[in-house]
Amino acid sequence: MRRLNYYQGVAMYHQSLAPKQNLKKNEKVSFFNVFSGTLVKIERNVTFQNRSRMEIAEIIEPGFSTADSDFPDINMDEGNLILKFRDWQEIQREVFFSDTVAFKWQMIETIIEGEEYDRSHIITQSKWLAEHIKQGEIEAQEEYKHYKFNFNGNGQLEVISNDFTVKM
Q1: In the chain, which residue ranges form alpha helices assigned H by DSSP?
Q2: Does one domain contain both 85 and 154?
Q3: Where does residue 10 rank: exposed (0-12), middle (13-18), buried (19+ CB within 10 A)?
Q4: What pTM did the predictor assign?
Q5: Same domain? 70 vs 117
Q6: How many helices (H) and strands (E) are present in the chain, helices listed first?
Q7: Separation of alpha carbons 7 and 55, rounded Å
């Protein structure tokens, strides 16, 4: 099965067709070509991705820049995450994430809708955060957020935490 969405193909499932045609998963369907504005027949099975449930990156201004920074130093101390790095202006930055329940570092770049490769984000409708709620690690009403910091060229840091503070 092939999953089509806005970025993975020239066609995107036109949501207004579903109620009119009672479309179901894995049916041969018509798609709306977002580039030409015409209907296109797709003769293959597809899995629909509901864009309203997609993870979306919202850019935040955390008080520092991750663009062109040095490779970060990441440490965990009694449930708190400490991020240290030297930014593009050679200023030493230290960021304290309180009550961190999860974090991950990766050297590859995975970019989602709304995300920029050298900026900081909050991931809304986060599957990773939802999994922590589902497994009872945190409660849905708690104020945890999924943060993502892109250190272009060096990697990405993702954190589930209550908040963060920048040490000046």
Answers
A1: 17-21, 127-134
A2: yes
A3: exposed
A4: 0.69
A5: yes
A6: 2, 14
A7: 13
